[in-house]
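Risk register update: the risk of archive-format incompatibility is retired. Evidence:
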Amino acid sequence: MAQQDAKLYLIRWRSLISGEVDFCEKVLAASPEEAIKIAGEGESSEILELYNLKAKEM
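Archived output:
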């Protein structure tokens, strides 16, 4: 990823149980898909199954 191609994305972690956004984080990435992948790195599959991650360019 070239630095000039990177954009800042706001990732919303929406709970599939309550439907509420539990938390948000900012990620620097080349695409919304990459931003979601970066946000989910290091999280267990059990945690990721409980959330719907959405990316919005800032």
